[in-house]
Amino acid sequence: MKRTTLRSAGITALAAVTIGVAAPTALAATEDNRRTVVAGIDDPTPEDLHVITPEEAQEAAQSLLDSDEAEVQELLQSLDTEELADLQAVAEGQSAQALQVNWGKIWKVLKKIGGFAKAVKGSYSKFKKWYNGLPWWSKALIRTATVGVQLYDVYWHFHNVGVAPEKEAAAKS
């Protein structure tokens, strides 16, 4: 055998061993762990990982529709007819089974809440501080739009993707 043949065989064997050892380790990392590392969260709280249930969304939507506070009424008037119909459907519990994550709709709702764009550009801790400082009606509106999603998912999606996927796909077309 020639020297180059032996060298190539040795490099190939070393690469195979390296991939064989590294691949299972890489595959063992879950997406939740990956996202935690990306955001710099060392110790996520249960609130960070809580998924909004249809019941919580229904309760939030009903409280918005039942409220007579001026700020809530102003918020409801800012919704277009599709958003208002979605809110009413959630409040009636009709769409609980049909609800799917729609980042486009979530984007439309979040744009109505002041400070979202600035908060999502920063770290997760700054985003969470912004969220915790919101009035109850803004949090309720977010809950109605984000059934099946964690607060952290909302941050991660818009922090890393930046826009709703539907708009991104339309821009490429």
The count of DSSP E runs of length 2 or more, i.e. the number of strands, is: 0
Characterize the biggest β-sheet: none
Mean pLDDT: 74
Give helix and strand order, one letter per element, not per position.
Answer: HHHHHHHHHHHH
What proportion of the residues is helical, as a percent range? over 70%
DSSP helix count? 12
Shape: elongated
Class by SSE composition: mainly alpha
Strand fraction: under 5%
Q: Indicate the radius of gyration in whole angstroms.
A: 23 Å
Q: Are there runs of 5+ residues with pLDDT below 50, and where? A: 21-39, 164-173
Report the end-to-end length measured between terminal Cα atoms. 55 Å
What does this structure look like?
The chain has 173 residues and is mostly helical. Helices cover 72% and strands 0% of the residues. It is built from twelve helices and no strands. It starts with a helix and ends with a helix.
Which key features would you list for this structure?
173 residues; disordered C terminus
